[in-house]
Model the fold of this input.
Amino acid sequence: MTGSKPFALPVDLPLDGVVVVEICHSMSGPFAGSILAQLGARLIKVENREHGDHARGWGPPFWHGSAAAFQAMNRDKESVTVNLRDPNERAGLRQFILEHADVVVQNLRPGSLAEGDFSGSDFRVEKPALIYCNLGAFGARGPLSSAPGYDPLMQAFGGIMSVTGEAEGGPVRVGPAIIDLGTGMWSALGIIAALFRRKQTGTGCIVDTSLFETALSWMSVQIAGYLASGDIRKPMGSAIPEIVPHQAFRAKDGYIMIAAGNDKLFASFCKALGAEDLATEAAYAMNEGRVRNRDILIPLLEKLVNSWGREDLSEALNNAGVPNSPIQSIDEVVAHPQTVALDIIQECPDIDLRLVGLPISFDGIRPSFRKRAPALGEHSHCIANSAKPEVEAEPQTARDTKTLGPNAQ
Done:
């Protein structure tokens, strides 16, 4: 398998020079931090000294001492250990933020940082230019604002699981942690927008986002459909309510996703299947009719598709210009020539480790893989005396006891 080739960007990364302190665990906050780090920010990850980020132990599989999930969310970062319950260590971290940080991002349980002058509003009294991002569960306001939350709970509470799965089956969670990762993306977007505004005004702000708000955002189309019609959407498997046919079909030897998203594509689909007359029937000629007559049309199409082998059907649909795709497994996705050509699965420069990079390129160049995820507390001994990352620290053990605090043991 081919990984990314090392290269240097011809210009600085967009966030070069920005210092971010990440007080986060699990996925949503660390993913936000990972985005910022890959865009060039110096990312300082604050962890509990005893066990660090919970995600370090989310395995097997483990990879170079930490869970594969942790490696995926924490590349290009530095790790420091701080006991936030210790007044001296907490004060040391606070001082570092006031002196050096441009951004703080945190996803601890609501209220965890409210005491001891550690909230965004407390920091910004002394440092108005600071950007402070809160990743909450249910949002900054409302009756559930202080409640905790997790990705699968928000897929349930936000309605996603009510429209996911087969019509006659039980609730199904979307496989990837779309709520956690989506919230990390919204956080990074909010932080970058705040940095842009700060460049114009000199003033930072508090950025708030949450898992629940992300779930509502992903449900925008379904909620709009309900508000427009009063209809409550139900699970439809791989299909969608608004377009027919736009779903997976079973061929002789496997499933194929077919997206005939307009009337012309439907006619081409029928022609490729050898069923031109189907596209000219009044009930099916237009998408509105196909949606209304879905229960009759889909079984007819399923019978036609089932007579084809998947590769032969895909070739016929490609020749007809009809969008389609096999349902690929993860190993097929990784090995596919298109994945390889994009060079998005990148090699770590110093250990045998490959991870997915940012889905963004600048002038045709994707930000490179700069460094592996840090060992717990690896940079604690040097961070207090330097705001610049040019000098790399020697790796420390996962039990490094040095911290930012002025009275560290």
About this structure: Residues 296 and 400 are 66 Å apart (CA to CA). The domain at 246-332 is CATH 3.30.1540.10 (formyl-coa transferase, domain 3). Confidence is low (pLDDT under 50) at residues 1-11, 386-409. The first strand starts at residue 19 and ends at 23.
